[in-house]
Write a structure and sequence with these properties.
elongated, disordered N terminus, Jelly Rolls, 22 strands, 359 residues, alpha+beta
Length: 359
């Protein structure tokens, strides 16, 4: 027996971080209708979103639509939750469509198996596994790097490593590194993430570090390298390092300087406060008028999964604060409390950041 017409709907579990306050009030929308958004809970929103997805499906029946009308008209809070579900799905559908279009453009369509071909089911199974693997790698792009790297850390878990040459490495969370120590030189490859290097001095075996198209050469010094998507950041705590980009342009950095290589191109050398820039080594994340890109970079180091956002919604965002790397959820709470941002927690450890004013 169906209860409120919802028994045939599988809830899509979504949790939201959104400041509502402790006082319950009833406001009005622009059309003059009462706003009941403060009355529905996350479970009601889950059911509303499930109804929205069901009705969008071509297989939705007339009985499904009657059952939906029964449910949505049962309470004003159901109506409000359904409107919220529509808005939320519109927000998360865009990145999903972009991913689908990207995958479609990258891979040719598979040939259809000939009728009666017993290999058809095997081909279909392989294609399904490929799609699942592709989704998993899209949802967690660090997974492939972790599989292939010599040393890897998971989100929020740093690791200290001492190499046989005496060099000390500190890998931040969500990082992956390859190590090759030869007789003539020492090679490190940062696949992703961030690391601090206290390089042992050995003129006979210079140390070279590669991060994407960026290479760093050093004899003995203390410095940090960060790789996030197409951006590589080099920060020197002590000594000197030589940096070369994809176009063979070079720059020399000394103590207290930082350089960003974006899309394979050298930026300008900046004098920085190393205490702030390297606070992550001490378990702190310090934002100083940070934009959305910097915030998301830090969140993806600390949290499993991915964080999505529409850059246009946050063009004017400026966020400051000091946080412990052990409590990344506090960063999300501060964003929602201080910066008018909604953080929607989606299945698969995904988070969608949305400007509150955009809703």
């Amino acid at each position: 027996m169906r209860k409120n017409g919802a028994s045939n709907v599988i809830p899509i579990i979504i949790r939201r971080t959104r400041k509502r306050g402790n006082t319950v009030t009833t406001s009005s929308t622009a059309s003059g209708e009462p706003d009941y958004s403060h009355l529905f809970d996350d479970d009601t929103l889950d059911i509303a979103l499930s109804w929205h997805l069901r009705l969008k499906d071509d297989s939705a029946t007339a009985q499904d639509r009657l059952d939906f009308q029964t449910w949505v008209n049962a309470r004003n809070s159901h109506k409000a939750a359904y409107q919220e579900a529509i808005q939320l799905w519109d927000d998360i559908e865009a990145p999903a469509q972009l991913f689908y279009q990207y995958r479609s453009a990258q891979k040719p369509r598979p040939r259809q198996a000939a009728p009666g071909n017993r290999l058809g089911w095997a081909v279909a199974a392989v294609l399904m596994l490929t799609m699942l693997l592709s989704f998993e790698l899209w949802r967690d792009p660090t997974r492939l790097d972790r599989w292939m790297a010599d040393i890897a850390t998971s989100s929020g878990k740093a690791q200290q490593v001492v190499l046989e040459d005496g060099s000390s490495l500190f890998l931040d969370g969500n990082s992956a590194l390859d190590i090759a120590l030869g007789e003539a030189q020492r090679e490190l490859t940062l696949r992703r993430g961030r690391m601090w290097i206290d390089a042992a001095r050995d003129p006979q075996r210079p140390l070279h570090l590669t991060a994407g198209d960026t290479s760093v050469s050093v004899l003995g010094t203390h410095f940090a390298v960060s790789r996030f998507h197409s951006r590589v950041t080099i920060t020197v705590g002590e000594g000197q390092v030589a940096v070369r980009d994809a176009h063979q342009n070079q720059a020399l950095l000394t103590s207290g300087q930082q350089l960003i290589v974006d899309n394979g191109k050298l930026g300008e050398i900046q004098d920085i406060d190393t205490h702030l820039a390297l606070a992550w080594k001490e378990g702190r994340i310090i934002f100083d008028q940070a934009g959305i890109d910097d915030i998301v970079e830090q969140l993806e180091r600390l949290l499993p999964g991915r964080v999505f956002f529409n850059a246009q919604d946050f063009a004017d965002l400026s966020f400051s604060g000091s946080f412990s790397t052990g409590h990344p959820q506090i960063i999300l709470e501060a964003l929602t409390d201080l910066s008018a941002i909604e953080a929607h927690h989606l299945p698969g450890n995904m988070i969608w950041l949305r400007s509150a004013s955009a809703g």
